[in-house]
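A student in our group prepared the protein record below, which I am reviewing. What it holds is a sequence and that sequence's fold in token form. My question to you is simply how this chain folds and whether the tokens agree. Do not assume that whoever made the record got everything right. I have pasted the whole thing underneath without changing anything:
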Amino acid sequence: MASPVIFHVDVKSAFLSWEAWERKAADPGAPDLREIPSAVGGDRQRRHGIILAKSTPAKAYHIRTGEPIVKALEKCPTLTIVPPNFSAYVKHSRELISLLETYAPSVEQYSIDEAFCDMTGTRALYGDPVAFAHKLKDEIRDTLGFTVNIGVSTNRLLAKMASDFEKPDKVHTLFPEEVSVKMWPLPVRDLFMVGHASAAKLELLGIKTIGDLAKMDPALIEAHLKSHGRTIWEYANGIESVHIDERTKTDTSNKGIGNSTTLSADVTTEEAARKVLLELSESVAGRLRKAGFLAGMVSVEIRYNTFENVSHQMQLLSPSQATQVIYEAAGQLFHELWNGTPVRLLGIRTSKLSDCQVRQMNLFDYVRNDKQEKLDQALDSIRQKYGSKAVMRGSFLEEKRPPKATPYD
């Protein structure tokens, strides 16, 4: 039986790379964003928003992903900031997955700019896996116009860790026999699934490196970090007893949280529908936060006054429990789905639930971190203490609120 071979393909500064490609295609004479201090982020004129991606030259100014634009401009006043173009990024992501699928027997997209390729048993087709990873990396660069790192190992965890080694445009291996040399010397915060809080607790225990964690008694780590402690101890030892993309799933991952409402009067405009969707989004997102879940999928259900039912769903680019994220997705789905027929019922459902305690930060987490999450939590606290009507949106005061939504799980 062939030994497992897993590739983890990770786009280098995805938003910045894809934005640079788009701009060069539109104007070949335009400066390459990858070669100048530049970033993808919010509105430079209004000086608000945060940095979503940055170029290598911008790193020389110590500009960090996730920091406010105003701080980035203080570090580099000449920083070129361009707004994000998410539809273009999704297009390039799909192109990448399509190319990978021409070679890999199994491709599983992990995020908008990452994918795992199971290359087990392909040696007869492509030869040495590491040599083929170099060829694949070069083809992506030459065909699609952006660079990737490819990590090669026998499981997803180690392949992902390998792809995070030196960048850009590199292939790295991290086979089990290489763990002690290549991974153990790294700071413990560099280990997959070790966030700031976990790293701080580990450092209080005298654990500075991944190797320190690997050599500790797992029972001690569990005593301080519960089941998550066992998980990261396994990861430190290169053990992936469950696929990393399943670690964040819960027993309810195939279920969902949703609300629907039958309207007292048929909705005939998108503006009116969006008010209903906003209230449903608040309810659904509030239940997600109360249960401690993030949603990876949002779906919208419409029942027309003809009693015809239709639905549409979309995967979120980053799992979320934020009201605004759920609402924006629902609004987009309604816009794409509605045919103009009067609406009798509207519903929102979230699925692909994951535990918010073990979520991974990524490029889209700016939605949650840009005041939205704190605002949601503050509103939840007020409503819990003083009642659900203690805080209401102004738009709900202009007219009668829709009938009470009906939850469904």
Residues 247-254, 366-370, 395-409 have pLDDT under 50 and may be disordered. Residues 32 and 351 are 40 Å apart (CA to CA). The first helix runs from residue 14 to 26. The radius of gyration is 23 Å.
